[in-house]
Amino acid sequence: MTKVLITGAGGFLGEEIVNFFCKKKYLVLATLHNNKKKFKNKIRKKKIDLTKPLDIDFNPDVIVHCASKMPTKGHSGTKMFNDNVKMMNSILNFAKNKNVKYIFNMSSMSVYGSINKSLVVENIKIQNANLYGKSKIENEKLLENFVKKKNNTVGISLRLPGVVGLFSHSNFLSKVVEDLKKNKDIFAYNKYCKFNNIILAVDIAEFIEKTIKKNFYKKKYFSLNIASNYPIKLFNVIKLLKNKLKSESKVFWLKSNKKSFTIDFKNIKKIGFKARTTTNSILKLCKYHINK
User: Which residues, in sequence order, are CB contacts of 232 under 8 Å at separation 6+?
Assistant: First the structure.
């Protein structure tokens, strides 16, 4: 039976991935910063400080690293950067002697910093990345270097857009959905820009499962964009959400000098990712909330 270690299981994405792999009957160990979190399934969980060396009686075939710290009140950006890097080093040191076959690192679109291109591809020039973005860049480099030394391990960093689901938060679409459900006014920018900055948590989990069933013979490390297929205008995104959620919110479109962009993800398609359309991703998100 394939063993999967999932960090950051107390967060939205980590919990979604834990529930997915439990349903698929994998042997899962979920790590989190406290033991208060309750899961849908009976799982093995462990409270752990990932910034310190890991002492876990578990030999995973796969590690999915979702844990990450953000700048918060009372914590400097420097501490957040250092903690995120410490966590990755701790994960890699643990994986070193465990014969881990796959390490999936949840990275972020924030690695690109200030985006001034209309299409975001993995090799565009990085400009003005904040400390959070820089911590993700550093973690990608650490994983890549680890894979080069550990030739039996495949490493994949997913540069995540807005990850959504029933309990998603802290991104544009999730906030819009919550405001629409409360019939609050919506203020948005770039009415006619194309938008595909969305991925369902379950689609990330499905990609991970399909990938661990493959064998990679040449390239062992990938830093990859992931998003939805066939971008649609942001105006239609919010219109669709509003109609499906039967919201009475008023939408106000504001002017902005900020350049909009869409996400190119042709490289992840090459290794088997099959994306939903942007429209279908939004419809699925609405379905979660309607059937809640």
Answer: 194, 195, 196, 278, 279
Q: Which amino acid is at 9?
A: A
Place of tokens 């949840």: 106
Write the CB contacts of 29 (distance below 8 Å, at least 6 apart in sequence): 3, 4, 5, 6, 43, 44, 45, 46, 56, 58, 60
Output the average pLDDT for the chain.
Answer: 93
**What average pLDDT does this structure show over 57-72?**
92
Question: What is the per-residue pLDDT across 190-229, written as a single tens digit (0 to 9) for each?
Answer: 999 999 999 999 999 999 999 998 877 667 999 999 999 9
Rounded to 5 degrees, φ, ψ at 195 are -135, 125
Structure tokens given for 57: 């009686």
On the question of pLDDT at 259 being above 70, the answer is yes
Q: List phi, psi (to 5°) of 234.
A: -60, -35
Residue 84 pLDDT > 80? yes
Q: Which of 121, 111, 237 is nearest to 172 (CA)?
A: 237
Q: Tokens for 255? A: 């002017």
Give residue for tokens 């406290």.
34
For residues 53 and 266, what is the distance between their CA atoms, to the nearest angstrom?
37
| pLDDT classification of 257: cutoffs 50, 70, 90 | confident
- Whether 250 and 183 have beta carbons less than 8 Å apart is answered as no
- Domains in the chain and their CATH numbers? 3-163+199-225 (3.40.50.720), 167-197+228-260+274-290 (3.90.25.10)
Q: What is the pTM of this model?
A: 0.95
Ordered alpha helix ranges (H), the chain: 12-23, 77-96, 131-149, 172-181, 201-212, 234-244, 266-270, 278-290
Query: What's the sign of the alpha-carbon dihedral 32, 202, 164, 229?
Result: positive
What is the 8-class DSSP label of residue 119? E
What is each CA distance from 142 to 96, 139, 173, 267, in whole angstroms? 13, 5, 31, 21
